[in-house]
Design brief:
Elements: H1 2-35, E1 74-76, H2 84-89, E2 93-99, E3 105-111, E4 119-123, E5 128-133, E6 150-155
Antiparallel strand pairs: 1-5, 2-3, 3-4, 5-6
Amino acid sequence: MKNTKSTQTIRRGMIFVAVLSLMIIATACMNTGTNAGQGTNTVSTGTQAGSTDNGSTPQTGRTLLSDSPDANHAYLISGDSLDASAKTAMSGFSMQKTQNPDGTTTIALTSSNPEYVNQTYTLQSGQKLYFIERFLGDDSESQEGNLGDDKAIIVDSQGYIVQ
């Protein structure tokens, strides 16, 4: 009987380590994907994402933010101010926005959680930055609880995802 309990304890420990390892790998992959691409990322102000249809023809191979799975979780953070829902989505993060002499805007996102990789986004004229927060209930007002569900997406003036 004692041997069976030790075997069960060892198995449980191995399962725990395996699950924890998978979670760490998944989080690392999500953060890598968020930081990959054009070298910089961008943020915009607080309204939820929608399409900006100005009558232009659809562009093949590109996705409108409004057609993406992130659309219902996207909050504009690159505007002049953040609305209440964007502030809620960004809980646990601070944002600094800088207008550059070349007409671009740089937005730096810093997490209160030291495990999160801080991100900087540079927006070209006409681009917007949306903060994606899939699970609003996982964060406290001052601490980011789930590092794997937050990212930013740059969108061009027609609503297509740039990054």
